[in-house]
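Final report, Chapter 2: Outcomes

The project's central promise was a pipeline that accepts a single protein chain and returns its three-dimensional structure in a standardized token representation, suitable for archiving and comparison. That pipeline is now operational. To close this chapter, we reproduce one record exactly as it appears in the project archive, with the input sequence first and the structure output second.
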Amino acid sequence: MDASHAHHHPVFCTVVPPHLLDKIAQSEDTRRADAAQRTLEQDSLLRTRRRVTTVRGIAPALGTPVSDEPRRTIYDTQHRTRLPGKKVRGEGEAASKDATVNRAYAGLGATYELFLKGFGRHSIDDSGLALDASVHYGEDYNNAFWDGQQMVFGDGDGDLFLDFTVSVDVIGHELTHGVTQYTANLEYHGQSGALNESMSDVFGSLIKQYSLDQTAEDADWLIGAGLLGPNVSGVALRSMKAPGTAYDDDELGKDPQPATMDDYVDTARDNGGVHINSGIPNHAFYLVATELGGKAWERAGRIWYDTLTGGELASDADFKDFARLSVAAAVARYGDGGAEHQSLQKAWSTVGLG
């Protein structure tokens, strides 16, 4: 493992990208504009705070066997922004009367279960890290995020965005930022940042597919389906199957994601387009998973997990680095004569990274 993996850079990652909130903040509807502006200001504050704090890795005592059971705690911030808030449900406790609390609890469990059953990983850090989440964060807060130590969910404004616990893939997406933080620790800008975002979309989608027991063919390959309000022209935040088609709306604008390197977006915004260009590796994963068929976490997901956690992926890796290492990971696990190797070569070639 190279030296870059030894330091966990605290990264503040939100599921709704800043370029989307920027667009809404320019809305003529003052309520929508104000909610977006408040969310942007809160995110900016949190991003600054992440830079001045460090991630505390929690390692188990040596020789202590790590449990196969998650350790979940859900807190309610009661529309304030002080974390974590009031404890409302602990591991193994009865369901709450609050559906948001129960969805957060279930989503943490689904994420823990896929990483354990699919990849033999014990929680985010592979050492049984407790999973904490705070719900009802802020007023009309249009986002969800992993802050380096816990999950936080806004309720949305009830207009453009609904409660951020409604999509299990959003919960899985944010928690996967934690897995990336503890493994390849991909720097959050440019192509390495887009890979960081793509890892979260890939495993977020796999968590949803696993919890619904779907095959690659059955899956919708959408990130954040059910999250957009009834008045929005769109189906989700992103589409792995068809990047650039998730929404086309007067207030949100048009989904800017490219599917191939031909349409790669050079931009200084959004940390160099981390939520935009992630569409390219996302689409490559979709192509591999659907070509291989069956349960996407069993082969395609395994190759991506091996690549992310194998110790070869540098923190400043670009798309070509990931493509090359994923092909090597496929050969290491499945040999070079099989469908896995072929489907990877074909997919990376299709997106312009052959």
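Archive annotation: The two ends are 26 Å apart (CA to CA).
This record, like all others produced under the grant, will remain available to the consortium after the project formally closes.
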